[in-house]
Amino acid sequence: MSRARGRAPARVPKGRTSAGGATIPSDVATVVADVGGHTVRLTNLQKLFWPEVGLTKGDLLRYYAAIAPVLVPHLRNRPMVMKRYPDGVAGKFFFMKQVPEPHPAWLETCRVPHTSGKVVTFPLVQDLASLLWTINLGCIDLNPWAAHADDVDRPDVLYFDLDPGPATTFAQVCEAALVIREALRTLAMPALVKTSGSRGLHVAVPIRPGPTSKDVFAFTRALGGELAARNPKLMTAEFRLAARPRDRVLVDYNRNIWGQTQASIYSARPHPKAAVSTPVTWQEVGRGIAIEDFRIDNVPARVRRRGDLWAPLLSTRGRADLGRFV
């Protein structure tokens, strides 16, 4: 990837900070950067995005520039839903599917027909330039589809989103994840795990493309419901908030519905401490971890030490054959 040089519209900025092949200054509000041959305008760099820890939009962009080499392969060719926080974590957010106009001519997009008859044009995050363009919209986290743009009805990954109730400890979330891992092991299905960066854990299974989103949802609903029934003091599959036990871990399989998304690997999150959705090992889950252990200030260094723990998700080998069950 080419090294990019940031430049302010009116002058060359001082005090530049280089990260992941992009130069993003810390002493100006706006910069026009040449990123891999594409022009990207980055704005409001000094705007406070995380008041509690004093981090700015520029800090967010620098984090994503640093993590891009391991992040972008997980996003490439997947429709991207934009969740925009124009005023940072303390402000309101909104979801956006349709790529905004105007947008750069070099930005790749994909058109996805919906059952309503509407055709939505989604952006694709294919490289560092398109990643920074997306984050500059105020997207703190990234929300890609579980399927690729060339076949949006056939995902190549399934998820279990483990969400703690109000009276649930994170240790219980870790215990629930281990229960799911053991169930998947008995089905000869590999399981990866990451922190959500918010409150829970995400368990993912790389699958061979083939089964439809409807098939994947049916499988996860059946397995999630069965595990909740077998572990009623730990887990629940009750989605009605009024009926859901407060001291149980919700096994959320609805993320597997067609068109649904969740925060991607290495996504920064609107958490007060700027936590990141971070791949972890099952040994770490067993020992005990905390959401705040993984933040935008330390995750790049962790990845340099440990590598991409979710690299198996990028391989064509070792994927589960869900066709055996649906």
SSE arrangement:
Blueprint: E1 5-7, E2 16-19, E3 22-25, E4 31-35, E5 38-42, E6 48-50, E7 55-56, H1 57-75, E8 80-84, E9 94-96, E10 109-113, E11 119-123, H2 128-136, E12 139-144, E13 157-164, H3 170-186, E14 192-195, E15 201-206, H4 213-230, E16 235-236, E17 249-252, E18 279-280, H5 282-287, H6 299-306
Parallel strand pairs: 16-17
Antiparallel strand pairs: 1-4, 2-3, 4-5, 6-7, 8-9, 8-12, 10-11, 13-15, 13-17, 14-15, 14-18
Helix pairs in contact: 1-2
Description:
The protein is an alpha+beta fold. The protein has two domains: 5-144, Alpha-Beta Complex (DNA primase, PRIM domain), CATH 3.90.920; 157-324, Alpha-Beta Plaits. 24% of the residues lie in helices and 23% in strands. It contains six helices and 18 strands. It has a six-stranded mixed beta sheet with strand order 16-17-13-15-14-18. A hairpin with a 2-residue loop joins strand 4 (31-35) and strand 5 (38-42). Helix 1 (57-75) packs across helix 2 (128-136). It is globular and about 55 Å long. The N and C termini lie far apart (41 Å).
Keywords for this structure?
alpha+beta; DNA primase, PRIM domain; Alpha-Beta Plaits; 2 domains; six-stranded mixed β-sheet; 6 helices
**Range of helix content:** 10-25%
Shape summary: globular
Low-confidence stretches: 1-17
Output the radius of gyration. Answer: 20 Å
Mean pLDDT equals 93
CATH architecture call of the largest domain: 2-Layer Sandwich
Number of domains: 2
Number of strands: 18
The proportion of residues in beta strands is 15-25%
Question: What's the CATH class of the largest domain, please?
Answer: Alpha Beta
Question: Major beta sheet, specifics?
Answer: 6 strands, mixed
CATH T-level topology of the largest domain: Alpha-Beta Plaits
Structural class label: alpha+beta
Give the end-to-end Cα distance, rounded to a whole number of Å.
41 Å
The largest beta-sheet arranges its strands as: 16-17-13-15-14-18
